[in-house]
Amino acid sequence: MDDCLFCKIIAKEIPSDIVYEGSQAVGFKDINPKAKHHILIVPRRHIESILTMVEDDQQLMGHLIWDAKKIAEELGLEGYQLKFHVGRRGGQEIDHVHLHLLSA
Ligand code: 5GP
Ligand code: ZN
Predict the structure, then answer these.
(1) Which of 47, 72, 80, 102 could form a disulfide with 97 if both were Cys (CB 3.0 to 4.6 A apart)?
(2) pTM for this model (two decimals)
(3) Nearest-angstrom CA–CA distance, 9 and 25
């Protein structure tokens, strides 16, 4: 997607603090962290939201959780939160699906 902020971050057209680069997803630090550790795990393929997710997206969405687990292990976290904001009324501001990894 040409005008998607997270697509541009993944393509490195916009700078970010990337902590993880996997085959299917990228992890980078949230610009406005709500916890000591706040990483966004974002699929390389543009999926807008869980609202518009289709059955074929299941595997990729599951992969995000796996990548989050790998990042958390890398950071030595013993406990953390994983969150999806779904739709504007669910707090979603960026229309490229992303998993929030939050930890003290
Ligand atoms: P949402 O509310 O859509 O689930 O979360 C979007 C997140 O993206 C927010 O926590 C916000 O701080 C973060 N964010 C917005 N713009 C940028 C940016 O340009 N770079 C980075 N690294 N994070 C961003
Ligand atoms: Zn995108």
Answers:
(1) 47
(2) 0.97
(3) 12
Choose one of 85, 94, 95 to mutate for the ligand 1 pocket test, by most ligand atoms within 8 angstroms of C-beta: 94
Q: Which domain holds residue 52?
A: 5-103
Which residue in the block uniquely carries the two structure tokens 């680069």?
21
Q: What is the DSSP string of 52-97?
A: T--GGGHHHHHHHHHHHHHHHHHHT-S--EEE---SGGGT--SSS-
How many distinct structural domains can be found in the chain? 1
Distance CA 67, CA 62 (A): 9
User: Could you confirm whether 37 is annotated as catalytic?
Assistant: no
Residue 16's φ and ψ, nearest 5 degrees, are -155, 170
| CATH number of the domain that residue 19 is part of | 3.30.428.10
